[in-house]
Amino acid sequence: MTIYGLRDDGKMHYHSFFVYEADPVTGAPSLVAANAGRPRIRPWEAEMLTAPQRSIRARIRPRLEWLELVLGGAAAAKAPPEKVQASTI
Predict the structure, then answer these.
(1) Predicted structure pTM score
(2) Rounded distance, CA 86 to CA 61, Å?
(3) Which end of the chain is more exposed for a tag (fewer CB within 10 A), N or C?
(4) What residues have CB less than 8 Å from 84, skipping those under 6 apart?
């Protein structure tokens, strides 16, 4: 997931996260793996409190078949499936 918007210093800034846990009904992120400073898992609300003027710009969800192909190494010799399902908000 990528967010974009103003920082405290008035400059535009991108930041990205891995969605660690999401609401099963809405798909809204509840826990994210953040990489600002030290890597850590934080609640979505806490992450957005540090950047109230930013909003979600993109969410990329890799397909399971693609992840298995990439992480499985040479074991998967079939034709690669589509790489990602992307949506822009």
Answers:
(1) 0.59
(2) 6
(3) C
(4) 60, 61, 62, 63, 66
At residue 2, the 3 state secondary structure works out as strand
What is the pLDDT averaged over residues 64-84?
66
Please list, in sequence order, all residues whose beta carbon lies within 8 angstroms of the beta carbon of residue 18, skipping any fewer than 6 positions away.
1, 32, 33
Give the closest residue to 13 by CA, choosing from 54, 49, 59.
54
For residue range 28-67, what is the model confidence (pLDDT) as tens digits?
Answer: 889 999 877 788 898 988 888 877 788 888 878 788 888 7
Q: What is the DSSP letter of 35?
A: -
How far, CA to CA in Å, does 7 sit from each of 36, 49, 54?
13, 12, 8
Amino acid identity of residue 60, one-letter, is I
Q: What is the pLDDT confidence band of residue 76, given thresholds at 50, 70 and 90?
A: very low
Q: Confirm if 59 and 31 have CB atoms less than 8 A apart.
A: no
